Amino acid sequence: MLLEHNVVVKDPLRIGLRFASCYPNLYRSAMSSLGFHIIYDFLNHQEDVYCERVVYPYGKSLETGSPLKDFDVVGFSLQYEQDYPHVLKMLREGGLNVRKDDREADDPLVIAGGPCASSNPLPMTPFVDLFLVGDGETILPKFLDKLNELDNPSRELDAFLEVEGLFIPGNKVKLVQVDDMNDAWRPIKQVYPETDDKEFIPAFGRSFLLEVSRGCARGCRFCMAGCLYRPRREANIKTLIRTAEEGRKATGLDKIALIGGAVSDYSQIEELCSELLQRDFQITTPSLRVESVSRDLLESLKESGLKTITIAPESTWRLRKVVNKPITDEDIQRTMKTAFDMGFNVKLYFLIGLPTETDDDINDMLNLVRDLEAMAPHPNSVRVSINPFIPKPHTPFQWADFSLQDVKSKTKYLKKKLKNRHFKVENPNKSLIQYILSMGNSNLSDVIEESSQKKISLGRWKKLTPHWTMESEFPWKNIDVGVTDEFLLNEYEKALHGDTTPWCETFGCYQCGACQQIRS
Fold this sequence. Notes:
Number of helices: 19
Helix content: 25-40%
């Protein structure tokens, strides 16, 4: 039995709506997801709603042990395409048919949100009734109002088209998001486990999750989140300090995990960390952008007890210009030298298989990795992770291809040449499957369903590999995330020529469409 603090207790018989918030990945990932906490806290603040959590591989809630079939609404958070088969396993475990056409009128309404639901939900449309495109706390109030009006929601789906941000295949939808971070939902009584079992300790450990910003407009051409969630919106520093203090009272947690699209880009990051330290908080953070890492920030993180920082050079200088991340080798070396001088370990993330990449680029990347490793005071001070580049919807690289053969040969070469004991490379076959699920259509339903019950051969997956051209009509054409196709195409053409687009927050507006959508 897992002991958790701050679990919401309501009497299911005395409320009007039972909502199952489902995370199709392991508990430790679920409880590290701020979005999962936001949905739980937001819904349970509604007097007549009881939201319970269900995490993979189970089909029953953590709160009452109720199976999914007993709920009115079953909502999934789609963070990663690889989790799609897990959704089906959970539905099955919870006593429901996986396909929406096979479910009964009195079965729960099955909905989904999260980045994958906002970018390309088409592969999951045979299994899910409705998709939330954008931020949950913005869409859910009107969704709940509409739900209360209907006698049989799963048989009256078209009525939900009146709600902004709800997507039903065959219809158009605009992404809806929190425009002002003052309106963002901040869960204070966050649930956390009391356990020594590593399987159940969240990725950030015993931490209070503090959201400093949403969105990023740096313009990295491979980054789906950077295109979906523009523009960058910051929380007020006073609000953040107050939230941290209230969170400590409600949870007893002294460690703060800073959450955001680009945490180190937060305009008052040094001041925020300094304030938190003065109030005896520890601080941890996900990866940092080399451009915005200062010595002051590293000193605050060091004082807070952080031992490892993560940065993503991505590739060589030439390819960094292709992906629009124009940090120089000198920038990277300077940041790493400062980090090593201060006693930090460093994790490095690289990509292979990027558009225009050549064998010379791979060798140049190897030389860069060796140079960076040579700076380390100890072999254990640096870890290198290399992942195949995967094209994503709504990015300039949605027109790029994924070549399994190319990625496999480069992976094999890198494994042979790199001797770092902490060198890790993602399995190319898994990357191909992620590419198919990211860029595919509803014709993937059979293979997704089968893969939720047994292992599917790579050959079967390969036959479903999409090959989009400049003339293709994308499956996600009806989802308007704000950024225009014209802007994305222009960025793709600039990438092929190695031209960069400076950061709009310092250079000025490029009319990408995202800010115009918010103002309209």
